[in-house]
Write a structure and sequence with these properties.
This protein is mostly helical. The chain contains 21 helices and six strands. Strand 1 and strand 2 form a beta hairpin. The longest helix has 26 residues.
Length: 488
Amino acid sequence: MAALSVLSIAMLHPQAGLAAAADPGSEAVHESLYADFESAAKAYRDGVAQAAGGERRAGRRAADRAMDRMLDLAERCAATAGCESERLMARFDALLGAGTRVAGEGDDVGSAPVDADDADSPVVAAFPEAASTLNQLNGRDLREIIVQNEAVRAAMAEWLTHLRPQLINAHEQYQYLRFLMWPEYERAGLPEALLFAIMARESGGRVHAISPAGAAGLMQFMPATGRRFGLGWQDGFDTRFEPQLAARASVQYLNERFAQLGDDLELALAAYNGGEGRVGRLARELPGRGFWDPAVQARLPKETRDYVPYVLAAAWLFLHPDDYGLEFSTVNGAATVLALKAPASLNQLTICLGNGGTRYGFFRALRNLNPRWLPETTLPAGTELRVPAKVLPLYDAGCVDGERAERALALVNARRPDVAPAAVARGAPRAGGSRGSAATHTVRRGDTLSAIARRHGCSAQTVARANGLRSPYALRPGQRLSLDGCGG
């Protein structure tokens, strides 16, 4: 799970809050922190403008120093009683979201979404000299970069034993998504193996993966970090679930970290998982020491110490499967557009299409290629869907009319009883509420809409309608959901 929050409050510097030691809750201390932060924010904008004006090296150095200063001040605020750290976090997000794209000081500082047709990396556009260092990875065999130490070998052993099914399935799903994601990495000069490895570890190739902490999508962006790179709610849809935009944002994030960390791949991956603030401080305080240095390892959380070897091992296996007897499925990743000839849901299509020569059928591919639609939503005739090219003849043969199409429709229309017979006989109230009142459910970490619906004997659509939720239904811990229409 990538913990890509910009300012992780759990990652406080040991010296955080020293400036406020005399009177941590005083208004004067708070105002001083806010003023210092605004001063650093202006320095950041000035640095970006300087880079855009032609003084690229000096501008980037100034912007990097200002970014570090803002991080330090926000963390000191978080450690100071009464200081509004959320205010500084929001300001930081907005500045960096604009800073990677601005052409000069006069530009807006909002975080407008990245245009889906813009092929260039905003980071390279702002700091063109970064392209020369990023391109050093282009075309290189990662055997020149990946350290074959005990940690990487141990992670490789896990991928090849109990995690082998996850790795193979992630590779299969990646082939369906490759035409959307790989061009974003290719343009930035980043290896395809790196893209696959991050995706395999983060989401296993599931577009709608959501972590308990709130990271979402194939590349598992936290909301605040996603906003920095143009990901977020647009027209009722969270674009963290859009494969192409998630890959682009991943490139932009890695580009930032390469610029910050001297093109160190392991440290960039550590920041992807453990937070850029923590890793940036380690790089400043322990200059010249890489990820594997014991002093660096001692100050990283266990999850990050494990995450980096897992990603490196997955990248290595992507490049050298034959060396380990690893057989990835061969999938025709060509995609096309299918215009529905009759109303259908993705679930219904999955049933009537059959396996089509695949191991598991097309459910995951249909979901990944069409992230805006819930699988149980009936889509009207004429709706255009992205589908694997081999689906077209299967659709015409089994999904438009005939016995298989009728069976698929009957199956998706089947509904469990709203109330269990035993509960009716006892006159029991509905789960979570008193007799005659609608039940509710309080969302806990790890809950998904589908799991909640199954637990209470109804469909995800029923819960969504009862609460006015829109696809793809990201939930937050503590949220109360009405279960009106569900069973016991």
